Amino acid sequence: MPSGTLQVYTALAENAAPLPGVTVLVLNEAGTQIARLTTNDVGSAPELVLTAPDEAYSLDEANTTVRPYAVYQLRAEMTGFQTIELEGVQVFAGHQTVARLQFLPAARTLPEVEPETIPEHPLFAGDGGSGPAPIGQCADARVLSEVVVPKKITVHLARPAASAANVTVSFQDYIANVASSEVYPTWPEQALRANILAQISLALNRIWTEWYPSRGYSFNITNSPGVDQAYVRGRTVFAVMERLTAELFNTYVRRTGDTEPYYTEYCDGKSVTCPGMKQWGTVERAKEGKSALEILRYYYGSRVQLITTNNIASIPQSYPGSPLRRGSTGTAVNVLQKQLSRIAKDYPSFGKPAITGTFDEATENSVKKFQKQFSLTVDGVVGKATWYKISYIYVSVKDLAELTSEGETFTGAQSAGAWPGTVLRRGSTGRSVEQVQFWLSSLAQFDSDLPSVRVDGSFGAATERAVKAFQKSEGLTQDGVVGQTTWQELYAEWVNAQSDAGGTAYPGTALRTGSRGNAVRLVQFWLRLAAENYTGLSNVTVDGSFGSGTASAVRAFQRLFGLTADGVVGAGTWAKLNEVGLAVANNLVGQNIQPGQFVTTLREGSTGTPVRALQYNLRLLAAYYRDVPTVTVDGTFGAATRRAVIAWQEHAGLTVDGVVGRLTWQSIYDSAQQVSASGPAVTARAPDTPEETLKVGDSGQKIRILSQILEFLAQFLPEITPSGLTDTFDDALETTVRSAQQTLGRTVTGEVTPADWLAFYRAALSLGAVNPASAAPEPQEVWPGAALTLGSSGPAVLQVQRWLNEIAAQDCSASFVPETGEFDTATQTALEAWQIANNITPLGVVDDSVWKQLKADALS
Length: 860
What we know:
Largest sheet: 5 strands, mixed
Mean pLDDT: 87
Low-confidence stretches: 405-413, 773-780
Oligomer: single chain
Radius of gyration: 30 Å
Helix content: 25-40%
């Protein structure tokens, strides 16, 4: 009996994070269950073999009686999430059907997921084909200045003037959906390529001419055959369509002498006729041995050509032009490894390759796992299709993480990026120049247009050239001078690149002689900073290569700071290097004074470096403890610093006098070190609800927060039209507001009342509890990598509450807490009581060690 296969993937927010543990029921057309599957740690269910009609039926144009595919039903369930039901799933003999299911939490603040039914395939039902080619150009039509392949496309789920929802989806996903909805996967590959290229060109023509926006519509295209082309919301697609789309998505048809993508009208050629391409005819042309381009020229004339553009929206860097494979080296490999490293935060089983610029076995293995997950040819080689698919997934996980970072993740730490207050130019010298050179040399690893520079503290011609190149890439004035704007942009870009590799957290593997990569560069820079402040330490070259000079410098550093002097950078040495580097960069230590060293008693009126160090640590503690007010690190012990000291003394049970003697100093320093080692504190602090109605023309911080909330919602809810982050309530944001109001069942006005604001925020909070940027534990209750404290929320907090309740069920002196996923005062009180009972300092913070001990206690 012929058969095909079904592959189910479950995820959140456009594949930004997999959703493991989902139960998937597969039923036949009559509703009888035939399989029960469970998704693994990357949200993938086992591939299922299903019976299907013989492939010959789908290759016979004359067949009008035997449906050439089998039909099945899916039901996907997981506690805490809305159930997904999908009927009409089509399985063809010899081909894989792919179901990529996107989940929403079960929350009353979010719209219900409606069951979806995939209609009969139009080639069998007889109602397919595109809309007719436009006749001339509308007088008021707008035309874009250049052809851009969009990251996303907004589709109206009906004919143009009909009342229906819009959905905004990835352009690649859109084309794979259209291809699966328009033609059969069993057709010869050249026929499939010709059809997909026609579908891409038609869509890009609609975008290029702004066919619908120029008429006042808020979408790019409709899902109506006969008007545009078929698109079925929520449908399964065919693996071959995903593979070909990933390869062809930035290639389109154009006629010689024209600028715009050609409007490639097409029809099935059997039940519907048209002057353009005949879909069934492409099968015959392919059987004749014609290539995709020859098929297109057969129908559209000899003037048509295929154009590939690298003008792709939101893609960090274009395909380097030739495939990358084991043994490849250079900037493009650095970029690839950086993106894979960031993706691995949400897909940990892919593996996290070191960013070395050399395509090694670990990189190849990571690529292969990625390719398998996203229906690409699994060969470990990064060609154009794999490069751009990695870029798309990287942008998805990155966008979601960045949208949730503001107002949620607080480290309290000073960065090394504070503007020094002095303009740097050719001839400048010193630590600030070294900082600029380090950022430039690090960024050059990912951008071949940026020349690398030597980190030597001397601003010469090479540094000036690199600064100008960076300014050009960022659209800044190209004067080669580092003022505040250039400084801040440099630091922001470095943080962006560094965060993909894990930030300044320990890389997980000890660095030693022979190690290479960005982690080594960071160690070398920290060593340079330390050498400027401590007698007996020598400078090293910042080149990313751990040679004998670096090993010698590491041993000297280890001896000075009381560590085992083995020349190997393990977790302890890394942490001390990081601490010393930040202390020197932020002027928190005097010459030859170690971080945490008590120098003198401090009180109101004191000034200088010791006060800066005190304020730095108080600021760090304030991120974790709401009863400790934050302070400015300015080196002056004023009333605000005294209030923070008193708050800490009360919190820690010290003598409350606002004076920092040895005991208070040591308590503040030790506690700050403890919480900083636990990762950032993840909290959810609600923005103030505006008292007034927000409308077009308004501007300011409230509009910025509103746009951020809506942009976050749009990552999960395709019915919400994204418009980007903005400080101004413009027409685009009004469109987004209207779509959000409609999606969440609010009155559609385009204005945001306080009640609308709360509805949007509560919906975002429901999604935030499951989004991958929150403190969500990995499978098997693994430490989430971020400290939990008062105000934190999400699955990790819920896990802590469950453990506390398991302990309370066995210990009558312990208190039960509500299992809400919100770290409230009841949770903090119960946690501190448990810490006291177990001889742990009652800080009320769950770090790595507390997490492990609490888990062990609950399960013992």
